[in-house]
Design brief:
18% helix, five-stranded parallel β-sheet, Rossmann fold, Hnrnp arginine n-methyltransferase1, 317 residues, single chain, elongated, alpha+beta, 2 domains
């Protein structure tokens, strides 16, 4: 029996002109970013301060054009959307065409360190932060891009990117942290199976902070690059049970606009990185000596290495 309707259903019901083999993970990632209201609100507030009517804006790592569209709303005369991934660039081109943005937005396909624009820009905006800050080589790429794209006195959004480290105890949740018992029943065996090592994590409730945040790397975007490494001293400011070290980023988008992925409640598109430690009682004034070694491939956050030891404020005689 034929219904008379030739309507495809199920997973094969896709647009006829969709690029073959389009990576659905890219779309999922951009969908999550679009749903991050804290991120979008912070960038909108920063762009309202940075972009003057008639400015030329370059969006580095433009993806699905969200920041480019915000720049146009803030008064940009033209936006150059630079995107290295050919699939995302094709999608961005379609989005621009669907919204009749010819003459106001140009998609530029290629690495921001090598492509060139037909004119200099007044503002460079980018959102290439990884969970720790540097995984997408944001500082290195923007250092070169700012030199190529911006006119003298041009502005960069974000202005600054900082990688931070903090000592925490979990509120009964977290990778590698298992309670000894549940309602009187022992769960001790689980600890023998829980794999040690760094884990990306989204908090479901605030952790207990046992130290202030320590900046282990600081980049002035557009002018400096580098990676967190070396030896750092983290002072315990709140007595408790040390369960993990947490590394995350903080970005100064504009003078009074901050964005961070800590403590990364659900809804944030970035996780933080936690290193579960043997549960250790700590006291105010104790110092955690931390040696940081990034992986050969900086994109792999879970492969960062931290070597730690505790210097007690009152060592036993």
């Amino acid at each position: 029996m034929h219904s008379g309707l030739d309507v495809p259903v199920g997973p094969r019901a896709v647009a006829a002109d969709q690029p073959a083999g389009f990576d659905q993970r890219l779309l999922l990632m951009h969908q999550v970013m679009l749903g991050d209201r804290r991120r979008l609100d912070a960038y909108e507030r920063a762009l309202k301060r940075a972009v003057a009517p008639g400015d030329i804006v370059v969006d580095v790592g433009a993806g699905s054009l969200i920041l480019s569209l915000l720049a146009l709303e803030c008064g940009a005369r033209h936006v150059y959307a630079v995107e290295a991934d050919p699939q995302m660039a094709a999608l961005a081109t379609q989005i621009a065409a669907d919204n009749c943005l010819a003459g106001r937005l140009t998609v530029v396909v290629g690495d921001a360190r090598t492509v060139r624009l037909p004119e200099q820009a007044d503002v460079l905006v980018s959102e290439m932060m990884g969970n720790l800050g540097p995984e997408e080589e944001m500082a290195e790429i923007l250092q070169v891009a700012a030199r190529h794209f911006l006119r003298p006195g041009g502005k960069v959004v974000p202005q600054r990117l900082t990688t931070k480290l903090q000592a925490i105890a979990f509120d009964d949740e977290g990778w590698g942290v298992w309670p000894k018992e549940f309602r009187g029943f022992s769960l001790a065996a689980v600890r023998d199976y829980a794999a040690p090592g760094a884990q990306l994590h989204f908090f479901s409730r605030p952790p207990h902070l046992l130290s202030d945040a320590l900046a282990v790397a600081d980049y002035q975007l557009g002018s400096s690059s580098g990676q967190p490494r070396g030896r750092h001293a983290l002072e315990i400011t709140g007595a408790g049970q040390l369960q993990a070290l947490c590394m995350y980023f903080s970005a100064t988008l504009w003078d009074d606009v901050e964005l961070s992925n800590f403590p990364s409640y659900p809804g944030c598109n970035w996780a933080v990185l936690v290193w579960p430690l043997q549960h250790t009682a700590v006291a105010c004034g104790d110092i955690i000596q931390v040696d940081i070694t990034p992986p050969a491939m900086v994109r792999f956050a879970e492969q960062w290495r931290l070597d730690c030891r505790i210097n007690r404020r009152h060592a036993k005689g």
